[in-house]
């Protein structure tokens, strides 16, 4: 672990280099990927900031692979990431929440030993109303033998991630990432265009203060989920209530809970039995960051990072945040809380 005092000014580049030195066998390729992600983040932040001024607000006419209307900024962010990452010689393929299939590295560029999976602009239905949105990314090592990346390289359990993180385009732009040596946060200083270390070695605060969940689904939750929510809210008299905060932008909700202590829950329900969130682009990277900050993430029965994905756009229920709160969710799904105070 690299330690810094609160007064040292540390750019993300310097920090990445220092972290790389912790791995004598590192070739610098992973560091290069992280720089490129930070560069793409600055470009997206710039677009998000000027979204109200330029003619880029609102939906396009296309639907993406999830059957959702694509927002223009989604498309722009997707494009920015691909163009920032495809020619560095470090990746052998990419996958995006916005693209149906694997994104190959163009023939004219060299292929590297990593794959990048990303959600270019999460929470995009919030864009038109100026609510924070985010980018989420995950890096895995290639496991197949050929030069080009294949589906098998993408469908690895999240515990094999070598780096993951997110960028929150909020009142300031923040990038939080982990390479398995803690989770670290950087704030973009727009005057110099640099991400500066602002939150070294983030630890999720205990106890969980915030509960982020969309209550509109209560009628389609099963009884165990309802019992869990009553527990979280202190309605069964077993614990003090958590405050409810739900932005509807996963990165924003997750980030608040990471810094302030809390749990984000998107359980399965009768209408969406597999949940809504995507395992590879959302749950896995945030689970890696969360665990590295002392938290936990589960689909209700299994640790998120242990799930073996079977398809690129697989969805998963998600409980992520403080260890205790996530353990309660697992107990609920085992039926141990059923009927409590219901
Ligand atoms: P959009 O990208 O369509 O806005 O979806 C955002 C999201 O994937 C995630 O960021 C939110 O936490 C979650 O969906 C909100 O879903 P509900 O609207 O069903 O609560």
Describe this structure in words.
A hairpin with a 5-residue loop joins strand 1 and strand 2. The termini are far apart. The model has no long low-confidence stretch (mean pLDDT 91). This protein is an alpha+beta fold and 342 residues long. The site of 1,6-di-O-phosphono-alpha-D-fructofuranose has 13 residues, from helix 6.
Short description:
The chain has about 350 residues and is of the alpha+beta class.
Top keywords for this entry?
342 residues, alpha+beta, eight-stranded mixed β-sheet, five-stranded mixed β-sheet, 8 helices, binds 1,6-di-O-phosphono-alpha-D-fructofuranose
Structural class: alpha+beta
The profile of the biggest β sheet is: 8 strands, mixed
Radius of gyration: 20 Å
Silhouette: globular
Through-space gap between termini: 46 Å
Low-confidence stretches: none
Major sheet: order of its strands? 4-3-5-6-7-8-9-10
Order of helices and strands: HHEEHEEEEHEEEEEHEHEEHEEEH
Task: Please count the helical segments.
Answer: 8
In which range does the helix fraction lie?
Answer: 25-40%
Count of DSSP strands: 17
Average pLDDT reading: 91
The ligands bound in this entry are: 1,6-di-O-phosphono-alpha-D-fructofuranose
Q: Which percent range describes the beta-strand content?
A: 15-25%
């Amino acid at each position: 672990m690299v330690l810094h005092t609160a007064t040292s000014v540390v750019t993300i580049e310097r920090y990445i280099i220092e972290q790389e030195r912790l791995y004598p066998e590192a070739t610098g390729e992973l560091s290069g990927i992280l720089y490129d992600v930070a560069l793409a983040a600055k470009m997206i932040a710039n677009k998000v900031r000027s979204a109200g001024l330029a003619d880029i607000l609102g939906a396009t006419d296309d639907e993406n692979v999830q059957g959702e209307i694509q927002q223009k900024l989604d498309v722009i962010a997707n494009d920015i990431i691909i163009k920032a990452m495809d020619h560095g010689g470090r990746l052998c393929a990419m996958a995006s929440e916005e693209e149906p299939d694997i994104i190959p590295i163009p023939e004219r560029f060299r292929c590297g030993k990593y794959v990048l999976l990303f959600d270019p602009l999460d929470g995009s239905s919030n864009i038109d109303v100026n609510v924070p949105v985010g980018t989420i990314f995950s890096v895995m090592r290639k496991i197949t033998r050929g030069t080009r990346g294949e589906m098998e390289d993408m469908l690895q359990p999240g515990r094999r991630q070598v780096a993951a993180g997110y960028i929150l385009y909020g009142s300031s732009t923040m990038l939080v990432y982990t390479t398995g040596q803690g989770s670290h946060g950087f704030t973009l200083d727009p005057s110099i265009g640099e991400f500066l270390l602002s939150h070294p070695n983030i630890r999720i605060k205990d106890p969980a203060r915030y509960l982020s969940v969309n209550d509109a689904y209560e009628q389609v939750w099963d009884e165990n989920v309802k019992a869990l929510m009553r527990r979280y809210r202190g309605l069964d008299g077993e614990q003090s209530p958590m405050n409810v905060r739900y932005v509807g932008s996963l990165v924003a909700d997750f980030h608040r809970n990471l810094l302030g202590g809390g749990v984000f829950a998107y359980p399965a329900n009768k209408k969406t039995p597999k949940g809504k969130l995507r395992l590879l682009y959302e749950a896995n990277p945030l689970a890696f960051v969360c665990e590295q900050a002392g938290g936990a993430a589960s689909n209700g029965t299994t640790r998120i990072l242990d799930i073996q994905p079977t398809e690129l756009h697989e969805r998963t229920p998600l409980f992520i945040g403080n260890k205790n709160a996530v353990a309660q969710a697992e107990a609920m799904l085992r039926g141990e809380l059923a009927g409590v105070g219901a």
